[in-house]
Amino acid sequence: MPGTKKLPRADYERELLRLQAELVKLQEWVRAEGARLVVVFEGRDAAGKGSTIKRVTEHLNPRVVRIAALPGPTERERTQWYFQRYIEHLPAAGEIVLFDRSWYNRAGVERVMGFCSPEEHRRFLQQCPIFERLLVDDGILLRKYWFSVSVEEQERRFRARIGDPMRRWKLSTIDLQSVTHWEDYSRAKDDMFVHTDTAESPWYVVESEEKRRGRLNMIAHLLASVPYYEVPRQAVSLPPRPEPTGYFRPDRRLQTYVPDHAATLLPH
Fold first, then answer.
1. Are 188 and 107 in contact (CB under 8 A)?
2. Residue 2 belongs to some domain of the structure
3. What is the reported pTM?
4. By C-alpha distance, which of 7, 3, 49 is closest to 212?
């Protein structure tokens, strides 16, 4: 599989930092131009979507860049038009929204696990290209990324999560069941691509067998796909501090401070 050779950590971190600096420029361009950017992250369970989103947002302004990770639909939402609950999370002018899974749940987990009917799935495949064409026609910049990983690597990552108390929360019942539905998910993905990999909103596949390479490749592609430029910034300087006017702080003993836990880490 291409792109599996592991990058040295130093090279990876150097390039990641450079790309993150460019993401800050992209963010400022979106804000200055009033652009609207939607980035969809989809793919196999444990393929690296969440860790990539974490690196994308690490140095960005949460008032400009939001992550939309919707829970399961409520009873009321189940009676709505399928795309309705996603629409309210779309960006306004000057905003970026990253969908950590998206309306494509219907083409993947809902179809495979039987959470939607064959008719609902058929209707989704028919309506989705139209829905996305409306977004693009209205000026939204839509980017869709599919994170690909082998069955062997997915199982390795699952086992690593099971043995790590800090990451075990990432494993849901649905994730575990995906192990026994590998071919079903493959067929669902292939069918989804046939209907939704369109000229207006194409899918971009990220080889994520090696996470470092996958993160860098995805971020670099996103940056290259948007015609942003560096927005000139106004010079910033601190105002002069005024002369004291006779204010005195209250006695520190009147306030409750958190214990100095850090001090316990120092050698005695």
1. yes
2. no
3. 0.91
4. 7
